[in-house]
Design goal:
This protein is mainly alpha-helical and 180 residues long. The protein contains 5 helices and no strands.
């Protein structure tokens, strides 16, 4: 199937998806700038703060997209649990970013919460898109892309929480990792 059968809410969710994609690009750019410019100098981490803010907004922007995708998943207990668990994880990840910026939460707990939220998101993306592979009215290539993104997130994030003396952690892309 080349085109998705449109259901109510798709156009609104698409706007949030494009906004999230733009925020994702900003997040990667600010993280890259932080590691290229600020980490070698030991601060002042303005790009890091920008990245935290962008990540917090991103986590909120993806909630309508997740809820819209959920509407297409075949019903079941696991799907119903995901409908509440994943947006709650997104909200928790967002809150941890904003609490870090406000200096109400320290870096390590904030990072742990954010990584846990991304791990939940990745697991849901993996499972939801696998279910959508067999669903009529949903493009197979989009479900495969979602499955790959979910697998990448799910496989990448849990390793970041492991204590290590180096920046390399198994599963991390090109050995880059979030320092914890």
């Amino acid at each position: 199937m080349d085109r998705m059968t449109e259901i109510p809410g798709d156009r609104t969710a698409a706007k949030f998806a494009y906004a999230a994609a733009g925020l994702g690009v900003m997040g990667v750019a600010s993280l890259g700038a932080m590691y290229a410019v600020e980490v070698p100098k030991g601060g002042p981490f303005v790009f890091g703060t920008i990245n935290d803010a962008v990540g917090g907004v991103f986590s909120l922007a993806v909630i309508p997209v997740i809820l819209q995708i959920h509407r297409r998943i075949p019903p079941g207990r696991a799907a119903d649990a995901g409908k509440w668990l994943v947006p709650a994880a997104c909200a928790a990840g967002s809150a941890s970013s904003f609490l870090l910026i406000a200096r109400k939460l320290e870096y390590k707990p904030s990072t742990a919460i954010s990584l846990a939220a991304m791990t939940v998101q990745g697991g849901w993306l993996l499972l939801a898109n696998r279910a959508l592979l067999s669903s009529k009215g949903y493009p197979e290539d989009l479900a495969r892309l979602g499955t790959a993104i979910g697998a990448g997130l799910w496989g990448h994030c849990p390793w970041q929480a492991l204590p290590s003396r180096s920046s390399f952690r198994p599963g991390s892309a090109a050995g880059l990792a979030v320092p914890v």
